[in-house]
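Hey, can you fold this one?
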Amino acid sequence: MAAHVRAATVRGRVVALARDDRGDVPGWVLVTLMTAGLVIALWALAGPALGRVFTESIQRVTGEIG
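Sure. Predicted structure:
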């Protein structure tokens, strides 16, 4: 096969792949919603503890507690 024929074939495949850019929208929506749900759940469980750790750390750095 000649080089120009191979190049045209490769170019045709690249163009065909570029046109099929719709993606998997329902899948991405599901991933986004599940990630948001995990963040909310973790924040609800660990938020108060992390807040206390942060407050205690700041107090120690500023010298408010021994």
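The longest helix spans residues 25-62. Let me know if you want another pass with a different chain boundary.
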